[in-house]
Amino acid sequence: MGSDTPQAQDGLAEHAASQEIDQCKALLGEIGVVLRGSITEHLVRCGKKGCRCQETPPRLHGPYFDWTRKVRGKTRTVRLTRAQAELCQRWIESGRQLNKIIATWEGVGLEAALKLRDRRAP
Ligand SMILES: [Zn+2]
Question: By Cβ atoms counted within 10 A, which residue in 2, 40, 72, 92 is the most buried?
Answer without folding.
Answer: 92
